[in-house]
Amino acid sequence: MPKATVATFNCENLFARFKFNANVDPAKATKDGFTVDMAKFDILKPVDKKLTAQAIRKADADIIALQEVDNLEVLRRFRSDFLKNMRYSQAMLVDGNDPRHIDVAVLSRFPIAHVRSYQHLRSGNSMVFSRDCLEVDIQVDGQRLTLFVNHFKSMIGGRAQTSAKRRKQAEAVRRIVEDRFGTADTGSAPWVVCGDFNDYIDGHEGISALTGWDQVENVLDRLPAADRWTHFYEGGREYRQLDYLLMPKGLASASPGTPVVVRNGLCTKADRYAGPRFDGVGKSIPAASDHCPLAFQINL
After folding, report:
1. Kind and range of the H or E run holding 76
2. Which domains does the chain carry?
3. What is the mean pLDDT of residues 115-123?
């Protein structure tokens, strides 16, 4: 039976030269969507990328969906400089809609056979996706696995105030999956919807079109409730699940394992995690990310 460990990770500002300063609204970090306002950025130090790479190495996924990557050349350079011997022969990124130039991407040990972007979808006068929904077909030992990689609208400006945008994005992703696989076979087809949804499950989330979909399993639910968080928000000392691997119930039932959340790269202020940290992690910075890689082995 073909197997593949799939992961998702918001690697937080995997940029060539800069990162967002503290307390800067990223939505205002460019002057016009094209010209970067350098007063709002600082230089990314090599230790940040090293810690990000350690988190990816620890997850040791065959296929990893990434969020907040600058561009394809940066992804390839990061792979060659920090992920040697990880066998990620395939790298894919399509520039999306974000004016800050943070995109979704995929690294894979298996061949990428097909890619489709949905960044062009519109709702009225605005784009549906803040970044993209990147559809990627991967050949896993003769079997096809399709990823739908996402990074939804952030909660900057307020969760309630930004919920409508995420709701449209979640509904659009569900339509994309149903259009691809058909409503009758959606629950048994080999696919994963993954990424940073920028919302958590409490009955009032804007992502319920996906998280409440009766065709899918949120594999993180296999962990005890106290262990399901993937993100630490330092400002409010909040621990939430913002990162998701959602897969059809047929695929999930054939994959009886337990998901892994890699927290070794979090800053030490995230003291709910009492395990070991990577060397070099600081109280607030440096850190691998404010998110954790989430990985799960799939049996196809």
Report:
1. helix 72-82
2. 3-299 (3.60.10.10)
3. 97
